[in-house]
Amino acid sequence: MKARFAGMGAWGPGFETADALEALFDGEMPTSADDSDGARPARPAATIIPPRERRRAPLSVKLAVEVASQACEASGIAPADAACVFASALGDLDITDYMCRTLASETPQLSPTKFHNSVHNAPVGYWTISTGDNHAGNAVAAGPDGTVAVSLMEAVIQCDIEQRPVLWVCQDIAAPPAYQALWPVNAACAVAIMLVPATGGDAHRLSLAPGAAGWPALHTPALAALYDDNPTARALALLEALHRGESICLPLNESSSLQVTPP
């Protein structure tokens, strides 16, 4: 399996672009994650979504769309020209929490908008409709430990076989208090990579390796808490290795791993 990683997007505490993330890999201090008034966490703009729909879009959708837009801009590939694979290990836990509480209440009447946004493929739906992307759009989940590697492999296989650009996007938001015992996710994170068919020696190669692997160590202390908590943040080890020009082995399942080798 091979593809060229042509452009990236990233969003998380201390970084709102791939360039800011790479600065952290180089040892710089994180940027502020606050708005200008310093009172609220910054939120992704996701301006590619039309204003009316953007007002109704939850954070999970805005995160995914924001980093997807960044990856498209960095690669020079128009959103409508790429197929896409969107992934999330846990889905939108805010809406899951709302729906469970509402259905258990004395007035179990769900908001149609909340219900509309509760499906796992909501981010890819907002993206493809907003951009006019008529290519295949998939939504993938493979649990907290497998989603990053499984969805990335899906995107690279599609890119390699169909010889077309494929946008890979992964995001997970913070968990509400009721879910913290199961998934102690304290901050949101999203990443995206535009994959394009490889030519010559510019290919990133993915291969299956026998035997299970644990998640590799991250060498950026400023990102350690995020890396340990958020399933999507596990992709930071991949991006860090690529930034350093190093190969990396990601856990795939109980019997195999995914080896990623840069050009």
Mean pLDDT: 91
Question: How many domains, as an integer?
Answer: 1
Fourth CATH level, the homologous superfamily: Thiolase/Chalcone synthase
What kind of oligomer do you see?
single chain
CATH class: Alpha Beta
Which runs of at least 5 residues are low in confidence (pLDDT < 50)?
33-40
Residue share in helix: 25-40%
Tell me what you see in this structure.
With 263 residues, the protein is an alpha+beta fold. It has one domain: Thiolase/Chalcone synthase (Peroxisomal Thiolase, Chain A, domain 1, 3-Layer(aba) Sandwich), CATH 3.40.47. The protein has nine helices and eight strands. It has an eight-stranded mixed sheet with strand order 3-2-4-5-1-6-8-7, with helices on both faces. The chain is globular, with a radius of gyration of 18 Å. The chain starts with a strand and ends with a strand. About 3% of the residues have low confidence.
List keywords for this structure.
single chain, 263 residues, 8-stranded mixed sheet, 9 helices, 36% helix, 19% strand
Write the layout of secondary structure elements.
Layout: E1 2-11, H1 18-25, H2 51-56, H3 59-75, E2 83-87, H4 93-103, H5 112-117, H6 122-131, E3 137-140, H7 143-162, E4 166-172, E5 189-196, E6 204-210, H8 224-229, H9 235-244, E7 248-251, E8 256-261
Parallel strand pairs: 2-3, 2-4
Antiparallel strand pairs: 1-5, 1-6, 4-5, 6-8, 7-8
Helix pairs in contact: 3-6
